Amino acid sequence: MLVGKKIRIRPLEKVDLELFYRWMGKQENVGRFMDAQLTYKESFVEGMDTLFKDKSKLYTMIEDSDTNPIGIMNYREVIGSNTTLEIGILIAEDSVRGKGFGRECLELFVEYLFNSKQVMRLQFLTRTENMGMRAIGEKVGFIIEGVLKKYKFEQGDYRDYCIMAITRDEWILNKSMGYDSAARE
């Protein structure tokens, strides 16, 4: 378990799947930059059961300091690379968005992954207009590497996505210079 000032991150458990399924099915939980997923509960649970066995991926539950679930975070290996992990984050509870929880999650996860996995690079994708996630990434040291034009069909249109990444070398350099994300306010 990863523990921060306001949050803790623990591996997702089967008892969490009901809540995860509800979050993914409601637009207010997935936010303005994703589509809610209408799917059969049994198919969702079956798919997650498969993921629990896949060592190239990890899904986690984000909880506040009172252990209330507030979101999901994950990583997966990037196809075609043995040095890169892709991160996903969803702060599903609207009441905590914009209060630093996402940033703390990303900081803890980056620290954990670079200290425990033999990876050179971490990346995530976000819609170009998702200024909140882009700002969080930049504060943690991620750099926009490019734009994927018309990458996904969401909310009735083809959407552009940014790819943001940080390398192990950049992360080490930032830490050695005392340039942590708290200084990037």
What does this protein look like?
This protein is an alpha+beta fold. It has helices at residues 17-24, 27-30, 41-52, 101-116, 131-140, 168-176, and strands at residues 2-3, 7-11, 57-64, 69-77, 84-91, 121-127, 143-154, 157-167. Helix 4 crosses helix 5 (131-140). It is globular, with a radius of gyration of 16 Å.
List the helices and strands and how they pair.
Layout: E1 2-3, E2 7-11, H1 17-24, H2 27-30, H3 41-52, E3 57-64, E4 69-77, E5 84-91, H4 101-116, E6 121-127, H5 131-140, E7 143-154, E8 157-167, H6 168-176
Helix pairs in contact: 4-5
Report on the biggest sheet: 8 strands, mixed
Indicate the low-confidence ranges by residue numbers.
none
SSE string, helices as H and strands as E: EEHHHEEEHEHEEH
Number of strands: 8
- Fraction in beta strands: 25-35%
Structural class: alpha+beta
Order of strands in the sheet with most strands? 1-2-3-4-5-6-8-7
What fraction, in percent, of the residue positions are helical? 25-40%
**What is Rg?**
16 Å
Overall domain count: 1
CATH fold annotation: Aminopeptidase
CATH hierarchy: architecture: 3-Layer(aba) Sandwich
**Helical stretch tally:** 6
Q: What is the assembly state of the chains in this entry?
A: single chain
Distance between the termini: 27 Å
Mean pLDDT: 89
The level-1 CATH class: Alpha Beta
Which overall shape is indicated by the principal axes computed on the Cα atoms? globular
